[in-house]
Specification:
Chain lengths: ~250, ~325
């Protein structure tokens, strides 16, 4: 792991000169800013039964679905398209270091964007004058959820990028996998055909992988280790598959 | 790494590489001593790039052994990667970085000490004549500069072995000259393996040449050795006027192998060009000239042909095509 920080620094720099990072950032702030003001308007009209932070994090999936691919689609696909992976892997670094460096760089930026969205709450607190809208519990819970689920989402993006040398293909694969997990899980949870007795193990699995449910638990302050395990094991698996994919592509190139 | 070790820089024995049933490299063996510049020649698809990629540890071999400075590539890839500077085919570079940034990043990856890296970068920039563009973005450089950035990168960590896949492709003659001088300046200090199909290039810079075709080595040695071995004959050209009927007989008395290979048509002054070939390598020009004069021929010019590496290359690759054709014919007969 000697070269991890060299690679991390390089990858962060590469992301900061890439237009897609700025597209992701602008889209993220526009969207989340708009969401936040809409929520505030609703709350100022009539009292609601959940806290505004909880309502805000209800929309977490929307930026995830476009931001993760924009940050990660380039990382391995572009290296392979340009052939720079060859110079990279013939220097004394391992594939593990390369993949982890790229992963960590994308995760850092992802978290940076989300962390800056905490400015919304700060502004509200500073100018609204009354603290009843701001409940620190759901805010912390929400950000904790974002940080932990982000590990898994970014790993999926890195994995998608390792599959193709075309970054748009990688981006689309990433969107499909993420949508499958986030929205597909929700759809399956409500699907009546899964309620049959014979399919109950499957139903259990679907319930376990309910990302929306996890988010709700986190914002309520319930941090379940089984849910943590879901994201951590998912992350590890996705990263192992990315490393294997990079190495397998060398063997069959 | 500092004291010269006795073992050769590159040792390859019985290397085989299969790509999905296609034999890219077929039982290659060679040894490169330290400090030598070796040229790797072959037509497209001969297996040059594959061999180089295996040498750098980028691709695994199907079978056979490869070791760099005594370290087997298969088991000690990390030690090998520390000792090899590699410039891949088409010289891939990240377009968004500045030249000095790129060299700094690569230097850090290649474990050049942070204190020494700055001065070392200055050195290679100077060596490759890149000082003017050190703050330019790589994507905006011309092909010649990009190529030199690639070369600078491969010598950056002062590795004992440098492997360059077609370093002069796409350069203009002036730039080729610079690159050639650069490679020649590494002679003795580093072992350099370069591949190319620009033959004069190889002939001028390399101490030894390996010709590879269809995944096999078809000839190896110094350019002079190769001429002798592959062509196995020398040729003379005479421009003479007069009756050449008895010339063949006379020539046989000088050297039994000497014979008239072809006769050109008469020109306006009554001279014709005659090509003579012989299997010996000593210069028998004087004897030929004397024989012609004694026969009453008027001689205008006599020259000994100097076969270029190109002839050697064509002859060697043709020979291997023939061998392959024979193999397949035999296979078909069975």
């Amino acid at each position: 792991m000697k070269h991890f920080f060299t690679l991390l620094g390089h990858e962060v720099r590469m992301l900061l000169v890439s237009p897609s990072t700025y597209i992701a950032a602008v889209a993220f702030f526009l969207l989340m800013g708009f969401t936040f003001t809409t929520i505030l308007e609703q709350y100022s009209k009539a009292p609601q039964d959940i806290s505004p932070a909880s309502a805000f994090f209800d929309y977490y999936w929307f930026p995830v679905i476009f931001m993760v691919p924009l940050l990660t689609m380039k990382c391995l696909a572009e290296e392979r398209r340009l052939g720079t992976i060859e110079t990279l892997l013939t220097s004394p670094v391992t594939t593990v270091e390369v993949v982890l460096g790229k992963y960590a760089a994308a995760y850092l930026l992802y978290m940076l964007f989300w962390a800056s969205s905490s400015g919304f709450f700060f502004i509200l607190r500073r100018f609204a004058g009354d603290a009843h809208l701001i409940d620190p519990g759901p805010i912390f819970g929400g950000y904790l959820f974002i940080a932990i689920s982000g590990l898994f989402f970014i790993a999926i993006g890195v994995f998608a990028s390792s599959l193709s040398r075309n970054q748009s293909v990688a981006g689309i694969v990433c969107v499909v996998i993420l949508a499958g997990f986030i929205l597909g899980g929700q759809y399956l949870a409500n699907a009546p055909w899964l309620d049959r007795e014979a399919l109950s193990p499957l139903k259990d699995a679907v319930n376990y992988a309910q990302i929306a449910q996890h988010r709700e638990d986190f914002t309520r302050g319930v941090v379940d280790t089984r849910e943590l395990l879901f994201y951590v094991s998912g992350t590890v698996l996705a990263l192992i598959f990315s490393i294997l994919s990079v190495e397998a592509k060398l063997l069959h190139s | 790494m500092s004291a010269p070790l006795p073992q050769p820089a590159i040792e390859v024995s019985h290397l085989v590489k299969n790509y999905a049933g296609v034999m890219a490299v077929n039982d290659i063996s060679f040894t490169v001593p330290r400090g030598e510049i070796i040229g790797f020649l072959g037509p497209n698809g001969a297996g040059k790039s594959t061999t180089m990629r295996i040498l750098t540890g980028y691709l695994p071999a199907t079978s056979g052994q490869v070791s760099i400075c005594g370290f087997p590539v298969a088991t000690e890839a990390d030690s090998v990667k520390r000792r090899v500077g590699y410039m891949p085919e088409n010289n891939p570079l990240p377009d968004e970085m500045r030249v000095s940034e790129y060299l700094y990043f690569r230097g850090r990856l290649k474990e050049v000490a942070r204190r020494k890296l700055g001065s070392r970068i200055d050195e290679v920039l100077e060596l490759c004549d890149l000082k003017r563009v050190r703050h330019k973005i790589i994507g905006k450089l011309s092909k010649g500069f990009r190529q030199r950035v690639g070369i600078a990168e491969s010598v950056l960590a002062e590795p004992p072995v440098i492997i360059m896949d077609e370093p002069t492709i796409g350069l203009d003659p002036h730039q080729i000259l610079i690159v050639r001088d650069l490679i020649a300046s590494l002679r003795g200090r580093m072992t350099v393996l370069i591949s190319s199909h620009i033959l004069p290039e190889i002939e001028m810079t390399c101490d030894r040449v390996l010709i590879i075709n269809q995944g096999r080595i078809v000839a190896q040695g110094t350019p002079a050795d190769l001429r002798r071995e592959v062509l196995g004959k020398s040729a003379y050209e005479i421009e003479a006027a007069g009756d050449i009927g008895s010339l063949a007989f006379l020539l046989a008395s000088i050297d039994p192998g000497l014979s008239v290979a072809s006769e050109g048509p008469l020109d306006a002054q009554g001279f014709r060009t005659i090509r003579l070939t012989t299997l010996t390598l000593e210069d028998s020009g004087e004897a030929i000239l004397r024989a012609c004069l004694s026969e009453g021929l008027r001689v205008r010019a006599l020259s000994r042909e100097h076969p270029t590496l190109e002839d050697v290359f064509l002859a060697a690759t043709r020979r291997s095509w023939d061998a392959v054709a024979e193999d397949t014919a035999k296979g078909g007969a069975k």
